[in-house]
Amino acid sequence: MKILVLTGSARNGNSSKLADAFIEGAKEAGHDVSRINCAKLKVGGCLGCNYCYKHDSICCQKDDFASLRDDLVAADAIVFASPVYYYGLSSQLRAVIDRFYAIDGKLHAPKRTALLLSLADDAEKTAMPARVHYEGFTSYLGWSDAGQIIAYGCTEPDDILKTDAIAKARELGKNI
């Protein structure tokens, strides 16, 4: 399976460690895995101008999203890894997801998907907005959720190592 892991961490902390563990497990299972850190890209939010609908899914913005198009369409599975800073996915990852609009018609194809989150809070309600967003757009696209790993209480970059989330992410990678 061709798996694309999209990460949204600017500091490469706990959610990045979750992504690393998932990738290790997926590679152990023989999958072809690539990773893109959306925090390193220059991607503007969707303008809602519909240029893409008149120009074969080409966005009018000239930024790094163009380099993701083929990988997103070709992937059999897309995994989203993000810290939750303020009740949602990171803004860098959200910008990429918002631009799915430009290639919407090409993304409505069977894909597996997974969500990896880390957050400082211990309250489930803090992760809920990120989960609802993920579940909404993946359902709309007809993608199949393979699993969600949520690591609570992760404030400092190595706090995730005190949880069982790393082992769960590796296992999810093996079984996606």
Summarize this entry quickly.
With about 180 residues, the chain is α/β, with parallel strands linked by helices.
Q: Can you give a write-up of this model?
A:
- The longest helix is centred in the C-terminal third of the chain and has 18 residues.
- The chain has a single domain, classed as Rossmann fold (3-Layer(aba) Sandwich).
- Helix content is 38%, strand content 20%.
- It is α/β, with parallel strands linked by helices and 176 residues long.
- The chain has seven helices and five strands.
- Helix 1 links the parallel strand 1 and strand 2.
- It has a five-stranded parallel beta sheet, with helices on both faces.
- Helix 1 packs parallel to helix 7.
Strand content: 15-25%
How are the strands of the largest sheet arranged? Answer: 2-1-3-4-5
Tell me the series of helices and strands, N- to C-terminal: EHEHHEHHEHEH
Quickly name the level 1 CATH class. Alpha Beta
